[in-house]
């Protein structure tokens, strides 16, 4: 059991992945029938997708599973345990390059890095509750570690010295984190209005251009967006993401070339 002082936040709480208890029911008596951690975690992810992080509660989860809240506590100690399990569960959706892919296989690190970045962006947008949990937990579950390992292997083939690899990882994936977080929030806001993304964007731009304090900056932004091209919000987002990612890849190539020179 988690101690009361840990629940109160007075001491750092250990990760669920550092808990050495067996998975499944672990308190005295019989286990609730039909439940296990995987089923509970999958239901948690569904609820988080449907209702968001703010509305999630153990009571709401129990109702979704048609059990009592105490039944859920047979399998996890706290709500944070479930959030941490759900975070790792989401990382399991990422398609990763084979562990043995590399120069000998003909795989290009640039292509694999772009693929990993795109997959991570899509994950953050698909599960808009996810960014709030990244960094909040240790994120050392098996699926998250597989993703981290894939990223390290790909960046390790760039030619960067080892002491610069973490900086390259930060540049690429913190950019993706920021882009995916903002995009996910935008899509949630659009969905709440009942409009399409293009309708929302058009109405928002029309309204802010009428505001004297914003019209100058927004007007310039509109001209920049028009020069960039893209008929839809989807196309504009895609063009910006692609170009920014290309800049980062080019930066890595430049740093490698500088080191060799």
Structure write-up:
With 261 residues, the protein is mainly α. The chain has two domains: 88 residues, Arc Repressor Mutant, subunit A, CATH 1.10.10; 124 residues, Tetracycline Repressor, domain 2, CATH 1.10.357.10. Helix content is 64%, strand content 0%. Helix 2 crosses helix 3, helix 7 crosses helix 8 and helix 8 packs antiparallel against helix 11. The longest helix has 32 residues. The termini are far apart. The relative contact order is 0.09. The N terminus is likely disordered.
Which tags fit this structure?
single chain; about 260 residues; mainly alpha; Arc Repressor Mutant, subunit A; Tetracycline Repressor, domain 2; 11 helices; flat
Radius of gyration (CA) equals: 22 Å
Q: What is the percent of helical residues?
A: 55-70%
- The CATH architecture name of the largest domain reads Orthogonal Bundle
Shape: flat
Largest sheet: none
Work out the number of β strands: 0
CA(first)-CA(last) distance: 57 Å
* CATH overall fold name of the largest domain: Tetracycline Repressor, domain 2
Secondary-structure topology with pairs:
Blueprint: H1 4-7, H2 37-51, H3 58-65, H4 69-72, H5 79-91, H6 109-126, H7 142-156, H8 162-193, H9 197-208, H10 212-228, H11 233-260
In short:
The chain has 261 residues and is mainly alpha-helical. The protein is built from 11 helices and no strands. α2 crosses α3, α6 (109-126) runs antiparallel to α7 and α8 (162-193) packs antiparallel against α11.
